[in-house]
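Hi P.,

Sorry for the delay on this. The queue was packed all week, but I finally got your sequence through. Input first:
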Amino acid sequence: MTERHKDRPWLMRTYAGHSTAEASNALYRRNLAKGQTGLSVAFDLPTQTGYDPDHVLARGEVGRVGVPVSHLGDMRRLFQDIPLEQMNTSMTINATAMWLLAMYQVVAEEQGLGPEAVDRLSGTTQNDIVKEYLSRGTHVFPPGPSLRLTTDLITYSVNHIPKWNPINICSYHLQEAGATPVQEIAYAMSTAIAVLDAVRDSGQVPAERFGDVVARISFFVNAGVRFVEEMCKMRAFGRIWDQITRERYGVDNPKQRRFRYGVQVNSLGLTEAQPENNVQRIVLEMLAVTLSKDARARAVQLPAWNEALGLPRPWDQQWSLRIQQVLAHESDLLEYPDIFDGSHVIEAKVAELTAASLAEIDRIQEMGGAMAAVESGYLKSQLVASHAERRARIEAGEERIVGVNCYESTEPNPLTADLDTAIMTVDPANEARVVAALHRWRDERDEPRAQEALSALKAAAAGSTNLMPATLECVRAGVTTGEWAWALRDVFGEYRAPTGVSGAPLAVAAEPGSALGAVRDKVAKTAADLGVGKLRLLVGKPGLDGHSNGAEQIAVRARDAGFEVIYQGIRLTPAQIVAAAVAEDVHCVGLSILSGSHAELVPDVLARLREAGAASAAGADGPAEAPIPVIVGGIIPSADATALRAAGVAAVFTPKDFGITEIIGRIVDEIRTANQLDPLEATA
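Then the structure:
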């Protein structure tokens, strides 16, 4: 038997980082020893949003969802004994992407590459700010300055680090925010057009080298469990990218027009209920981006089975890596050409997705492009509406999720018999150690040089020069992440993106006899009992967690149930949330936290409400001075949920509580309990 040629496998990564640079470095070296072929760095939220660990908004967030990197010393420790010239490193970093790449470059120079040899570095910075405005929430600066930072990083990389992918246009979080396949393609491609137009118009790359820019544009996508449609989506992505780069930008070289992408399969689709089912979900989702050779991912990272429960352990991440290795090395997948070529069914679906996506791209271009569609709120409101429609289908049982809304009976799960050990936890004392180390770094650096570098950065930002050289000098001078970002905030300002809530259409009808209709009646009856026109609900996002999908869906459904909803978006301190609750005279405060900072931030909100003597608004006929109930939703381990309830939280909701209408009904019940009103009949 003649042995078949076998294609080279994709890069295999694990999205990882936690606690400290030292702990993350040890994890990376262990993963590489297990056969991982690339690194994917998860940074903590203060690093992603340009805050030092000692800032008030960083409280409870340091080292939670990734590694804290506050300065060059942290970056050195993160990659100690890892030769960067041999690595392909992906950094999920956006608003502060320039800063992190500058630190990475300087560490590579210190490892012996030298300033002239960094052109051997390979890897990716995500550097896609549009999807941060729409879904992930780690944006800092307004759209214009953000696009400038993106452009400067791309042009610098093309000229100085030619093997680096300076942008990873990311549709991953769009799908998790509710995007349909058509929206995912169209919004990502519209972002690519905005970026390429800005690079072209900047004049920093000669026209004859523009193909080199296009060749370094990469994408990062999501793959859901509908893996046939998802595979067709990837083929449509490639077809549209080839058309845009050829027709709009005149790139003749087919290699430069190649659609290059990495993937992480869907994480928010993983379930807390029967989490063992997540393993087969992950496998099916991986098939979407590996089965079709012509649309195969260049790099794959898989979530762990228990991510809906909390932070995965190293063993859980190893399981996900082994899934990739078994498919690549034990199966015959890599021995064949594209097995879908010639399929009329696949071609029809690809053509359908392509046509619909091109139509939506044209619609966005008519609005003035992606940035204009962000600022107008169009893109965000479309995502919120799509997500609301999907949630409604799940609640109605039209979209079935095994273990959640069907086949719910189960045997005891040995994997989760002890929930407290089924996930990894970050030592609460870690944050204080990181802050102390930051203070030592500031005390020991050359302060005049650091201040001079920051002044030069501000001057460059106020002008039109490329910001990467000034950023590199800030790195070498010992400037911190927060100082770099605040220098640019001083020049560019900050930005609060549209929430999309007010423009979202009705997703669930409140017809008589329906579940929402019954809740709407409860809302109206409770408002009447309290002698107020409407019940008022404040939905708050304390800390730096920018994943606002859940908060937005609660806000939309509460609005549709008859509440007056106060939702000010992401990134609020406990003091700001309490001030808004008092000023708006609300009847309930709902907090949404997915980053793990609930143990720090929720008790702070409770304490401040008590200090403020906050009471729900009561009419002339209602009881006076009733406490405002606080409810919390997020990825919250059971032990933490128990502690929060003991601290005074009225109710805790986690991903297993998928019924949004039922949650709204519970909120009404908690308002009635707090105001000593008789309970009403439970809703269906």
